[in-house]
Every structure is written in C-alpha cells, then in structure tokens.
C-alpha cells in the first residue's frame, strides 16, 4: 500500500447558525414601505360643502355627521372619522349623547346629496335625541 492513503474528502462543517442579515434587510425595507404607505391610506371622504354668507364660529367640542356624495349607493354616513351604515346611526348617536350636557350635532352634506336623503338623516338624528342640529356650510371663497 505504499505511503499513500486513499483520497480524503474534506467535509465542511454544517451551518448551525442562520444568517439573519438578509432577514433584517428585508424587514427594514418592509418597514420603510409601510411607513410611507400608511399616511396615504388614511383618507376622509371628499365632500363639497354648500356656501353660506353668515355663519357663526363654533368653539365647543363637536360631533360631525357627514352625508357623502355616495350616500345613495351605499347608505353610509360618517360620524367624526367613523364610517357606518345609516341603519345604526340612531343608536350610535344615542351612545355619543348620553354623557353630554349639550346634545349638539353638526351635519355636513355634499351639495349633490338629494334633499330627501339629507332630511332622512336629519330625522334619524332627531329621533336619537339630538336637541340642536346645525348644518355646516362654507363661507363664500372658502374651500
């Protein structure tokens, strides 16, 4: 057999540790994407308010109910920033008015909403116990 042994293969030790650098890179990229995209996803309804010449400036805590242009199709209104079906509007307003001494609601509506739909929402607000219902408008020249 001479002094030569059979060919020896060098076997590398198995990787027992996971390389987390690529994982961290991917996570940072996803974090940046979500940080940029999140503010773009929070968007309110587009409402074109009608104009009024004389409107008082209000300084109390207010509850806004918005009737959007799409009310006829989806029958949804917005209370402050909460979008909900008109079927639950009366109960939700009752919940909001329980602890308030002044039961005031400010109603906004797109100018393209039909008067019958606007009055329907007003009736629901009155049935919920709203004492003072104010219609929000824009002064001429405001946007």
Overview of the structural elements:
This protein is of the alpha/beta class. It has a domain of 72 residues: 2-Layer Sandwich (Nucleotidyltransferase, domain 5). It is 33% helix and 15% strand. The protein contains 4 helices and 5 strands, in the order H-E-H-E-E-H-E-H-E. A 5-stranded mixed β-sheet has the order 3-2-1-4-5. Helix 4 links the parallel strand 4 and strand 5. The longest helix is centred in the first third of the chain and has 21 residues. The protein starts with 20 loop residues before the first helix and ends in an 8-residue tail after the last strand. The model has no long low-confidence stretch (mean pLDDT 79).
How many runs of DSSP E, i.e. beta strands? 5
Report the major sheet: 5 strands, mixed
What is the CATH domain class of the domain at 64-135?
Answer: Alpha Beta
Question: What radius of gyration results from the CA coordinates?
Answer: 31 Å
Q: pLDDT under 50 segments (min length 5)? A: none
Shape: elongated
- The percent range for strand residues is 15-25%
Number of helices: 4
Assembly state of the chains shown: single chain
Helix and strand string, N-terminal first?
A: HEHEEHEHE
Distance between the termini: 98 Å
Helix share, percent? 25-40%
Indicate the mean pLDDT.
79
What's the architecture of the domain at 64-135, going by CATH? Answer: 2-Layer Sandwich
Main sheet: strand order: 3-2-1-4-5
| CATH topology (fold) name of the domain at 64-135 | Nucleotidyltransferase, domain 5
Structural class: alpha/beta
């Amino acid at each position: 057999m001479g002094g030569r042994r059979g060919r020896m293969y060098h076997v590398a030790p198995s990787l027992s540790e996971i390389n987390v650098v690529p994982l961290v890179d991917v996570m940072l990229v996803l974090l940046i994407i979500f940080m940029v995209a999140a503010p773009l996803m929070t968007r309110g309804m587009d409402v074109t308010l009608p104009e009024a010449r004389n409107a008082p400036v209000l300084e109390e805590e207010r509850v806004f109910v918005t009737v959007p242009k799409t009310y006829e199709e989806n029958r949804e209104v917005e209370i402050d920033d909460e979008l909900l079906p008109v079927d639950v509007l009366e109960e939700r307003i009752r919940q909001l008015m329980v602890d308030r001494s002044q039961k005031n609601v400010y109603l906004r509506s797109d100018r393209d909403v039909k008067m019958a739909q606007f009055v329907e929402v007003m009736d629901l607000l009155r049935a919920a116990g709203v004492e003072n219902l104010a219609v929000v408008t824009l002064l001429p020249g405001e946007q």
